[in-house]
Known about the structure:
Elements: H1 2-17, H2 22-25, E1 37-39, E2 52-53, H3 58-71, E3 75-80, E4 84-90, E5 97-105, E6 110-117, H4 126-140
Antiparallel strand pairs: 1-6, 2-6, 3-4, 4-5, 5-6
Amino acid sequence: MKFKFIFYIIFMTLLANSKGNPELEMKLAACPQSPNCVSSQATDKDHFIAPFKISGKTEDAWKALKQALAGQSRTLITQETGNTLHAEAASLVFRFVDDIDVVIDHNAKLIHIRSASRTGYSDFGVNRRRMEALRSKLQQAHVID
């Protein structure tokens, strides 16, 4: 009986520390119905934005993406794992925070992106412009098409 209990504890510890389902790690949160969000995994045209297609090594694209995000005004990378990244961007005047989530799919050579306002209804296109500016930076670095 004692052996089963110890085995159970070890198994649960290993399970808790495992990376989890890689398929779940590739999913971005869905956009709300409000027009203040864009996502490359959105299924409707109002929220959809094309993912970034990596043209070279995925590692180079990931490094360039982090540099480009860090170079954006009032943007801070707050979390990063091997395949995911979360950043926060604050507006200049009122300091509204937008959340930026990024997932890299090494096999498909795609970077999926999502940018959404935390508050309010409309962002007047700020999140879409931010992601397109990021796309432009990465294209200039020759890491995406």
